Structure prediction request, 222 residues.
Amino acid sequence: MAIGSIIKEINDELPASTRLVAISKYHPAEMIREAYSAGQRIFGESRVQELQQKQAMLPSDIQWHFIGHLQTNKVKYIAPYVSLIHAVDSIKLLAEISHQAQRCGRTIPVLLQLHVAQEETKFGFTPNECLDMLEQGEWKEYSGARITGLMCMASNTDNETLIEKEFATALDTFNTAKQQFFNDDPLFSQRSWGMSDDYRIACRQGATLIRIGSKIFGPRQY
Ligand SMILES: *Cc1c(COP(=O)(O)O)cnc(C)c1O
Prediction:
């Protein structure tokens, strides 16, 4: 099926409050143009150099989201234009994003990455670590980075009950964080969960951003 028809199909089944992030990593710029022609404006990339190249050659009204693990020494390259950084997993990264945003005269929206999956990974805060970090308050000094919500990935499994439980944990953590630390901040509103194989489950658990790659663009060529 053509890229545009798939995007339309996905959008037709999404709740009104949920937006599609088209994950274009490892796919050529022509495919992004095709999605753009179908009206898609939000694209997600996970490698800084690839994002830099695509950003330079594609329409300037694209909203580029950075979705992967971001090294602090690379923040400066994307700070001038990135519209959302999904996976902030340390205070150190938050501080650097704030610093680089201020150098560009911007405020960069970010999400905190939660680790809710069973897989061992060094990335992301557990729900308790996330709430402790917010309680501790140092993040308030980094006002160039604006925390607008949470992001997570579920376990890579066919067990839908487990996936749903993990998204529910992320939603609970979001609600607690909202109530305790962002009650008077309407911008703290984004829940980035769900990929090609689990976005319907994610929507049931309150996703406002779903990150879909292979369902739109096909398998990635590594
Ligand atoms: C690659 C990637 C996606 C998209 O995965 P698909 O299964 O191709 O939809 C979503 N989120 C993150 C963080 C990714 O790295």
In short: Residues 36 and 220 are 19 Å apart (CA to CA). The mean pLDDT is 97. The longest helix spans residues 160-181.
